[in-house]
Amino acid sequence: MGVLRVYVSAVLIVALATGAVLEARALLAAEPPGRVVAATAGVSMDQAVKMAEQRYKARVVRAEAQHDGVRTIYVLKLLNEAGHVWTVRVDATNGVIL
After folding, report:
1. Does the global pTM surpass 0.70?
2. Which residues contact 88 (CB under 8 A, 6 or more apart)?
3. What ranges in the chain are assigned the alpha helix state H?
4. Collapsing DSSP states into helix, strand and coil, what is residue 38?
């Protein structure tokens, strides 16, 4: 019975140590406190293009994403049937046309 108790104790110690190591690794991999992380885009580029084309009855001829600090903005160049070209900016987090 003494050998079994020693074996079980050793297994428990190894399991606890392994759990502590895994927890420490997770804490080290986490973002440092105070660091601002960019939010995930709520509107995809394709969604922004479709939204602008429908709203302005024009075709998007160029689209690019620009990063303004932590915010992503889609810059869309539109062309209508009359040949008029203009630029629209769309906030990627909420789809608001700026």
Report:
1. no
2. 52, 56, 75, 76, 78, 97
3. 2-29, 45-56
4. coil
The conformation of residue 61, written as its DSSP 8-state character, comes to E
- Please return the burial class of 73, using the count of CB atoms within 10 Å of its CB with bins 0-12, 13-18 and 19+: middle
Contacts of 23 (CB under 8 A, 6+ apart): none
Give tens-digit pLDDT for 39-60. Answer: 455 999 999 999 999 999 999 9
Which token pair is 24?
Answer: 């420490």
The 10 Å CB-count burial string (b at 16+, else e) for 3-25 is eeeeeeeeeeeeeeeeeeeeeee
Contact 63, 51 (CB under 8 A): no
